[in-house]
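[Primary structure, fold]
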Amino acid sequence: MKKITLSIFLVIAFSSISLGCDVCNIYEYTNLNNRSFIGFFYRYRTFNGYAHLGNEHQFQFPTNGRTSHEPEENGLYADKTQQDYETYTTWELRGNITLKEKINFQFILPYEQNTVYYKKIIALPKPETDTTIALEGWGDLMLAADYIFQKSNGKIKHIFRPGFAINFPTGDYKKASEEGKLYDPIIQPGTGSWAWIIRANYQVIYRNTGLMASLNYQIAGKGKHNYDFANSFNFNADVFHQLFLGNLAIVPRMGTYMENASHDFFQNEKVALSGGNSWFGNIATDFNFKKWTCQIAYQIPFSESLNGNQLGNAGRFNFGIIKGF
């Protein structure tokens, strides 16, 4: 769950904040071969358009996505427009070690770039202007593990992988404006808080066709700056089919993804305009060549119910290069 403001000191009335909702706890990469790998992932999320104004949500480049809220009550006011947007980009290094096809150990190290743009900003006593805020830095290190259960009758193969992950508060969370004022805890590349994620992944394969599904629930710890992130839940399910052209396997996938979060809290008070529920359609293809995999995926929002007048989801693009060993 992410929210962005302009320059913000920590004394602010969060009940008036408006934000967009991104609640991806952990982007699950499913390795059909259950083997060790090293991977590089690029993930881009964008938010624009206000539902209460009847705006359309349009997928757009450049930059990236997480969440935002306005700097009202800090001498600044954002007049909502169709041109407002937030983008969040994550460059992510992953490593996975599989031991005896029974246990996976994984690390995830992200580098974040977060951008928010407001077309109409009134900074009293200054006249109306537009503004762009862009922050970047290392995100939080995540360590994960899961246990692999496999069962096959020769025709149908089932793989179940329950596990957990820990989010370490190692990322940048103290970035400030030129005036020395801290930015909102949510626009920071790092969260400044611990989090524990309960996970489960499942695959069933019949010949070259199958289903893969994952779910996770994140329990957020106490945050820095008296800001506490909400607990959140993600679910993903895709059907897939493997096509073979010599040593090249093409694996198209299609399915759905859902994310849900409760409200954040600031100084033990509920942040009214935070949290919500969003559904996406998944369209993706993996290209497997020997020990290499290229993954391309696009998530299209088709339903959401956000708390308050938040910028809506406009789409997400994911790309990965993975080397198995």
Q: What stands out?
A: The first strand starts at residue 37 and ends at 50. The chain has a mean pLDDT of 83.
